[in-house]
Amino acid sequence: MGCCIVGCGKGLPALDVTNDELATLVDTSDEWISTRTGIRSRRISIEESSLDLAETAARQALGWEGALPGFEQQSAFAPEDIDLVLFATLTPDALLPSSAALLRRRLGLVNAVSFDLNAACSGFVYSLTVAEALMAASQAHVAGASGRNHYHRALVVGAERLSRITNWQDRNTCVLFGDGAGAVVVEWRDDAPGIISSYIKNDDDTTNSLVCPASFDSSFVFDQNGVNEIAIQDPAALLADASLDRIDEELGVIEGVAAGEPRQSIRMDGQKVFKFAGNALTNAVLEVLNRAELTLDDIALIVPHQANERIIKYAAKKLGLSLDRFQISIEHRGNSSAACVPMTLSDAYDSGKISPGDKVIMVAFGAGLTSGAVLYEA
Length: 378
Ligand code: COA
Prior knowledge:
The longest helix has 23 residues, at about 270-290. The protein is an alpha+beta fold and about 375 residues long. The chain contains 12 helices and 15 strands. Helices cover about 30% and strands about 20% of the residues. The two termini are about 15 Å apart. The chain is globular and about 70 Å long. It has 2 domains: about 1-205 and about 270-375, Thiolase/Chalcone synthase (Peroxisomal Thiolase, Chain A, domain 1), CATH 3.40.47; about 215-265, no CATH class. It has a 5-stranded mixed beta sheet, sandwiched between helices. Strands 8-15-14-13 form a 4-stranded mixed beta sheet, sandwiched between helices. Bound molecules: coenzyme A. Coenzyme A (COA) binds near residues 121, 175, 307 and 308.
């Protein structure tokens, strides 16, 4: 028995932006980007919100539009069948309500408990782990389950518009990111193992290697003495929010912000993140194998986070695997954070690479620092 993947889908924005186009924005080239990262183009949302992309992915995962190979036999789920929505994102369209609540409303998932989860690029793997844990803890055979909500089917989504928090003047980061969404439906089944093992882990980002401060635009009218009369009379004399200076200092971005960098944009020490990522990916794969008492020979496919093709090559070498054991989708998408793993999984189903009974590992890493993996039987 276990939490089984019974639907999968993805949603992509229409606009495709090539490396050559980025070379008109910053000092870079198609040659540099493609050889250093494996990326040739990425999708950028113009009119599509994160929610729009998530809706497209969810409709496919639910079997409402164009079920993927492997899931066509499955009849489409009714909206009331879904009792949990987990939405992994670091770029929600709104702070309130949550993206999960908005998706629930759009899709009419009237019975679903819905909330967002931010674990950066590991967000989908974290969300799937949480969904599985909630489902397992609510099954009838578990002591105390009757005192909890019952979860039988969950929609788990990763959706991002990283283009909104990318500094398009910074060649160290802007060439890497893209937008998109992916989703799975998971169902508790008594006759299949589904998710066999999972692993999630945090390390401190002691050197601020991957950060993005928030941005708050609303008028702030207080100082240490209470309401500031001048700020009330004259909105132009808006007070600085001292707490933001403190967080900018803590995140190591105060000088850049003072120099005019867009405050709410991703800043990254590429080499530090690269080092962390290669080891985190390898370690997470070995951890889920160990927990499942399986070996790499048992695994049909690894579906990794798509941050840089060289990170995947590094992990493949460390694990002693050929690259064709990994599903790679970075070439025309780049890194779309929490959306990468479910979109790449959907590619694998679409191209018939996952058959019933196959064991698959999804693995991710990201800011936080976060990392994790889920091993399941298809
Ligand atoms: N175009 C052209 N040149 C660029 C460039 C670009 N877009 N970005 C950086 N460079 C330059 C650098 O300025 C540097 O020049 P210098 O040697 O004159 O100083 C040179 O290329 C090499 O830079 P370096 O940072 O050593 O490149 P790299 O091989 O480490 O590749 C990344 C940079 C960002 C692609 C790579 O470090 C990476 O992928 N890191 C991990 C990122 C990641 O995974 N982020 C998300 C995690 S979820």
